[in-house]
Amino acid sequence: MYVFQSAGQLSIEEFHVPFGGKLDPSNRWVVLAGVIPWEPLENSYAPQFSAKTGAPAKPFRMAFGALYIQQRLGVTDRETVELITESPYLQFFIGLSGFQYLRPFDPSMMVHFRKRIGPDLIKVCNDMTKANGIAMIQELLLAFQEGDGEAEKTELEAIETDLGVRPATLEPGSNWGTLILDATCVPDDIPYPVDLRLLNEARETTEAIIDELFKQLKGKINRKPRCNRDKARNRFLAIIKQKRPKLDEIREAKRFQLNEIRRNLRAIDRLIHCGAVLLELGSQLYRKLLVTSELYRQQQEMFDADKRRVDDRIVNLSKPHVRPIIRGKAGKKTEFGAKISISDDNGFVDVDRISWDNYNEANDLIARAERYKEEHGYYPARICADAIYMTFTNKKFCEGHGIRLSGRARKKEAAEIEGQSAEQQELFKSDLRKRSVIEGRIGTSKRKYGLDRIMTKLVATSRSVIGMAFFVMNTEKILRLLRLLFALLVSVYMVMMCLLSSEHRTASLGAF
């Protein structure tokens, strides 16, 4: 059940602080709370709940605010709740009416927040917050220019350029703006998948399931199915501890583990036939049993054919959705995680595609350009992308819509660039330098916002984490521009005060 919150944005004057004083209106969490449009977003969040049945759910501002705090500060679920409990600014940000010493929710609720606020809702939050932030900055710029048109024109023009708003002087319908495309892999938190280690883990899983099923049949059957646990464990350790084991030894160890898993799976079938119920295992063990069965099939197929590749290969029992992504990067030829396509829309980053299966990102260019037109009403003036996007289909689409597709050409087309004029070559180099911006966005998302290692285990929660990371990046850009405007306003105010003081001194000396 979901209960709508009272209308009206909570102000810092209304926030009750029991130890006296008031919140600082220039604090980053207070400013950010005014940028995000909470009420319209709550209307998008509420329909997924029942209107009458169930316990009341936590409000959207609390759920989304907690996810934002965690992603921005890079902390765990428990640490997020502790920080919110200790800070009045964070409690104001998540929508509490006053400071409280009790935890607003249990850390386990963070998992439910990530499930409920998926990438689609985060996309809506991103679009609405970006539009609201741009409108706020434009109002401040207009008021600033009306107050003093000659003051700090260079800084104001830089802020307007960084904001990425189409100039009003351009002809209606003409292309404008820059769209930068790229793709990267977001690694999951899993150990490097070694077949022998995966088989050993699968064997231990089947042994744990046999123990649980035998408990259900206690008194009905006299003997637990036999498992060579110690022998299998010792043979696994004998190989895995070697620095460079021989291939024949590895193959023999795999054969032994596969035989043990096969026997354990047959024993599980016999226990079920005797009356054991799989549903009483619990969701985690039951899920692992299904994954283990598929892992055994894949490993047995590769073992019989003596090959190292299979379709939809499982590389982790806890995260069976993770697939090997061949990237060919220096030091990391293969990465294990989600492959994402991102785009930089005049300084704001969007996630266009998330997939744990490998794909060709060049196929996303046309769809992203069409979405750019739906959002803005016109196509971008240029698209900066990598060499993989320079396909015949993409080039033909861009030529037909007056878009300059710029990127490093493939080897067979490199001769065309050498024959260009000096002006065309300089424009090409400028576009290449512009494309490097998205490389910085990727590096920032991994180094600062936690995308270097995804800790969540489910597909839905992983998608939420990835989308939230880029939402935080966009809001940080809006906050940075607001801080620049505030600093510029303070500097102009100080100059005006100095001028008034000097005029007052001059008037006093003249009177004397």
Q: Estimate the mean pLDDT confidence.
A: 85
Query: Per the principal axes of the C-alpha atoms, what is the gross shape?
Result: globular
Oligomer: single chain
CATH architecture descriptor of the domain at 166-189 and 323-455: 2-Layer Sandwich
Residues in helix, %:
55-70%
By CATH, the topology of the domain at 166-189 and 323-455 is: Nucleotidyltransferase, domain 5
Distance between the termini: 77 Å
CATH class of the domain at 166-189 and 323-455: Alpha Beta
SSE sequence, one letter per element: HHHHHHHHEHHHHEEEHEHEHHH
| Uncertain regions spanning at least 5 consecutive residues | 503-512
Percent of residues in beta strands: 5-15%
Radius of gyration: 30 Å
Structural class: alpha/beta
Care to count the β-strands? Answer: 6
Descriptive account of the structure:
This protein is of the alpha/beta class and 512 residues long. Among the domains are: 166-189 and 323-455, Nucleotidyltransferase, domain 5 (2-Layer Sandwich), CATH 3.30.420; 195-305, no CATH class. It contains 17 helices and six strands. It has helices at residues 28-35, 38-45, 60-73, 77-86, 88-93, 109-116, 119-147, 153-163, 195-216, 229-240, 247-273, 283-305, 365-376, 392-400, 414-418, 422-447, 459-511; strands at residues 178-187, 324-329, 332-345, 348-355, 382-384, 404-406. Strands 1, 2, 3, 4, 5 and 6 form a six-stranded mixed β-sheet that branches. Strand 3 and strand 4 (348-355) form a beta hairpin. Helix 9 (195-216) crosses helix 12 (283-305) and helix 10 (229-240) packs antiparallel against helix 11. The longest helix is centred in the C-terminal third of the chain and has 53 residues, at 459-511. It is globular. The termini are far apart.
